From TrEMBL, chain A:
PANTHER family: CYTOCHROME C ASSEMBLY PROTEIN-RELATED (PTHR43653), CYTOCHROME C-TYPE BIOGENESIS PROTEIN CCMF (PTHR43653:SF1). Residues 89-295 form the Cytochrome c assembly protein domain. Belongs to the CcmF/CycK/Ccl1/NrfE/CcsA family. InterPro entries: CcmF_C, Cyt_c_assembly, Cyt_c_biogenesis, Cyt_c_biogenesis_CcmF. It comes from Falsiroseomonas algicola. Residues 315-639 form the Cytochrome c-type biogenesis protein CcmF C-terminal domain. Required for the biogenesis of c-type cytochromes. Possible subunit of a heme lyase. One of its GO terms (molecular function) is heme binding. One of its GO terms (cellular component) is plasma membrane. This is Heme lyase CcmF/NrfE family subunit.
Length: 657, 176
């Protein structure tokens, strides 16, 4: 009964989405106020229907309803309640339902927050969102209905893939989807602007918070995925240039470019067509990411058994939306007349350079990710493109980007003097060189990590210089500077903090270049040394969990003979899935991670294979990403953005997440 | 202040420069870093040199996995054979095998072929799902005659994974 209700709610959402797609768009075209006004309630209704549908599926999971096929395939009664609930979106059908749910929430948010938007623009934006919804709801109902029944019901489900039974992975898809789907909103704004043939500063002011929010969520989502891979897969790495990882990086890169160019639209009324194109490409990349993950066309660690019919459907959706948008762009882009004029050396110029470099990196990652697929389809060539390609091809583009991102915020709009920028940044360059030589000396001649540290110092230093410059910290007394700091717009703080976050992540990546690894077979009582620590294997014992059994090792960590910490890595066996997972033990002091994994045990001798890592500055990679997202959130809280936002009463109408 | 035309020229020039350098970087990096996939039969037909890394894939031959006795304080070594039903290649790997590594299942390894004909794997790729068959491996099995497309649809990957290479599908070995 509950499953049928969910199915019905999904169908209802489709009908409402269809109405939301047609009525407001037609209404805006014929200037019919009533038809345009239908957009907001329809979006709200669609959102409610989707939420109802989602909770129906969640309920089926929570009570382990074995008459629902999706539950049977992905759940089991012995699974802890938390993973029963998160298992709702731990599979193809459920994650699609989550995707359309977030799209519905975005639609409701636009209709709630967008009361001050011009009526026609709001109707068109909601109409385009409705169109996207129609496609994905059709896809869900047609090929991936999560509410299919199964009769007769089996006694119990088949269980969730054990490596997905983890809190990190429970949060990863929702955050990532908030990012992906957030770009659907900027896309809808871009299409609405193309239909109207008008882009102005007000449009930029609306697109900016959405691209900021999407970017912040995507940053968190990617970081969480990377952190999860780091501690769950137990390989000791954080980024593998895996096609599916790249698929999430592509919209992030384009989103970063969009974020910056939208500022120029808002502040200077320039780069309009370019920003619209970026908004279209950002959503195209989000769809591409969904396609790559959901179709299984690419060989990746994320490739689950997949259905080619689904891949074709998403590919068709991608084609319809992106080709349609690009055609519209081709016909209408010339209607946008740029008014803001700027010199090449200026804040706008720096942002153009940022866009150019970021788009070039995107192109490199795009080609590297999709080339195996094209080579196979066109030439029947079975090739793969691995980390060495991405590292060597993107590094030369990242270097000028990091140099330029330090200078950009210090330049005034319209026209800047390079000499002024150099005067404000010279001490950052000094610190960067000092960091380079210090790292080279201390690390024992590792050049690349030292280069990384130099750039990290440069970027963080420049963020400090930016704030110091705006608060006149070096020119007046501290009280004056403090008052100025409090008066700074939050967007200025947000930008500096996000840039500093990039520097911190860069330092983490550079530090991981100095990571040490050791893999040894040890008998209980034996020990080995790594990174100045003595690691002693005390023993391995059996542990019983709710739906797994495990072999857990006890490793004592000693420094100069004194005990620092006991680490307990384990290897779990899930009898329902007949699968092993690795549970890493990590001891962090925020400067370095000590990381231990237990491998196979040898029958008879009692020896166990232990893999140990000393990951210098590893936590900084994710701390930096969190700081970037924090910067985004701070920017989002800026008064100038809130001024055009709705009053409080309107905000309360939006259904809470 | 510059005119619109002049500014547009600047931007176009910069774009061309950016795209050009991205293309150049991509092409040079491609040259050095493209990794080809080879099945055991491919290697038998044309032996790649020891200086070029490639990916070897197939099924882990049933009964071929041997773990060398562990020596305290040293990296563990594993030997196994990768087969596509027609030919098999011996592989050595120093390290811990991924959780989903199993005899009779599809596997993709990366490394170089030694002069003695043994493949030295630097990486054994993990999969997230046991019903998943790497597409290249499926293709290699097809080419070696394990599945003849003329005889109907492909069997589900789950049965391929547990297929015992010692008893290949009838169409397989007669041809080779």
């Amino acid at each position: 009964m509950i499953a049928e209700l969910g199915h019905f709610a999904l169908a209802l959402a489709l009908v409402l989405a269809l109405a939301q797609a047609l009525l407001p768009l037609i209404g805006a075209h014929v200037r019919d106020a009533r038809m345009m006004a239908s957009a907001a309630p329809l979006a709200l209704g669609q959102c409610l229907a989707l939420i109802a549908s989602f909770f129906c599926l969640m309920y089926s999971y929570a009570i382990n309803d074995t008459t629902v096929l999706n539950v049977v395939q992905n759940s089991h009664s012995l699974k802890p309640m938390l993973y029963k609930i998160t298992g709702t979106w731990g599979n193809h059908e459920g994650s699609l339902l989550l995707w359309v749910n977030i799209l519905g929430l975005c639609g409701a948010a636009v209709s709630g927050f967008g009361r001050e938007l011009p009526t026609a623009l709001r109707a068109r934006v909601l109409g385009v969102l409705g169109l996207i919804s129609v496609g994905f709801l059709l896809f869900t109902i047609k090929t991936s209905n999560p509410f299919d029944r199964m009769w007769p019901p089996p006694p119990d489900g088949q269980g969730l893939n054990p490596i997905l039974q983890d809190i990190g992975l429970a949060m990863h898809p929702p955050l990532l989807y908030l990012g992906y789907v957030g770009y659907a909103v900027t896309f809808a704004f871009a299409i609405a602007a193309l239909i109207e043939g008008r882009v102005d500063a007000a449009w930029g002011r609306w697109v900016r918070p959405w691209s900021l929010a999407a970017w912040s969520f995507l940053t968190l989502g990617i970081a969480l995925g990377s952190w999860w891979a780091y501690y769950e897969l137990g390989w000791g790495g954080y980024w593998f240039w895996d096609p599916v990882e790249n698929a999430s990086l592509l919209p992030w890169l384009i989103g970063t470019a969009l974020l910056h160019s939208a500022i120029v639209v808002e502040k200077r009324d320039a780069l309009k067509t370019w920003t619209i194109l970026l908004a279209i490409i950002a959503f195209a990349m989000s769809l591409l990411g969904t396609f790559l993950v959901r179709s299984g066309v690419l060989n990746s660690v994320h490739s689950f058994a997949n259905d080619p019919e689904r891949g074709l459907f998403i590919l068709a959706l991608l084609m319809v939306y992106v080709v349609g948008a690009l055609l519209l762009f081709a016909f209408r882009a010339s209607a946008m007349i740029p008014t803001g004029i700027f010199a090449p050396v200026s804040r706008e110029g720096a942002i153009v350079l940022n866009n150019l470099l970021v788009c070039s990196i995107t192109a490199v990652v795009f080609v590297g990710t999709l080339w195996p697929m094209f080579a196979d389809a066109l030439f029947g060539m079975k090739v793969s493109v691995g980390p060495p390609f991405f590292n060597s091809a993107s590094f030369p583009l990242v270097v000028p980007l990091l140099i330029a991102m330090a200078a950009g915020p210090l330049m005034p709009w319209k026209r800047a003097q390079l000499a002024n920028v150099v005067m404000r940044l010279w001490w950052c360059a000094v610190i960067a060189f000092a960091a380079f030589f210090a790292a080279l000396l201390l690390s024992g001649q590792h050049v690349m990590p030292a280069v990384g540290f130099a750039f990290a110092a440069w970027v963080i230093g420049a963020a400090v210089a930016d704030i110091a410059d705006r608060t006149a910290a070096f020119r007046t007394n501290w009280r004056n500077a403090w008052n100025r700091a409090r008066g700074l717009p939050r967007a200025a703080w947000g930008a500096a903090i996000a840039h500093a976050g990039i520097g911190i992540t860069a330092a983490g990546i550079a530090g991981m270049g100095l990571a040490q690894e050791r893999m040894v077979a040890l008998a209980p009582g034996e020990s080995t040394t790594l990174a100045g620590y003595e690691w002693r294997l005390e023993g391995v014992r059996d542990v019983q969990g709710p739906n797994w059994t495990a072999r857990r090792a006890t490793i004592t960590l000693l420094r100069d003979g004194a005990e620092v910490r006991v680490m307990e890595p384990s290897r779990r066996f899930f009898p329902i899935a007949r699968q092993n997972t690795t549970e890493v033990a990590i001891h962090t002091n925020l400067i370095a991670d000590l990381y231990a994994v237990i491998g196979e045990e040898e029958a008879g001798t009692g020896k166990a294979v232990i893999r140990l890592h000393y990951n210098f500055l590893a936590p900084w990679i994710w701390i930096g990403a969190a700081i970037m997202a924090l910067g985004g959130a701070l920017s989002l809280a800026d008064r100038r953005i809130r001024v055009s936002a709705p009053n409080r009463a309107a905000a309360r109408m939006v259904p809470a997440e | 202040m510059m005119t619109r035309k002049k500014r547009r020229m600047w931007i176009l020039l910069l774009c061309a420069l950016g795209l050009g350098s991205a293309t150049a970087l991509t092409l040079t990096a491609f040259q050095d870093n493209l990794v080809f996939f080879r099945s055991p039969s491919d290697i038998m037909a044309e032996r790649p040199g020891p200086d070029r890394a490639f990916r070897l894939g197939g099924l882990v031959e049933a009964g071929s996995v041997e773990r060398e006795p562990a020596v305290s304080g040293q990296r563990p070594t594993v030997r196994f054979r990768v087969t596509d039903g027609a030919h098999a290649i011996a592989v050595t790997y120093q390290g811990v095998l991924p959780d989903l590594f199993r005899e009779g299942q599809g596997v993709v390894t990366m490394g170089r072929l030694g002069v003695d004909g043994t493949f030295r794997a630097s990486e054994v790729l993990a999969r997230h799902d046991e019903t998943y068959m790497p597409p290249e491996v499926a293709d290699a099995l097809k080419r070696s005659g394990h599945w003849n497309p003329a005889e109907g649809a492909a069997p589900p990957p789950a049965t391929w994974n547990t297929m015992d290479p010692a008893r290949p599908a009838a169409a397989g070995r007669t041809g080779s």
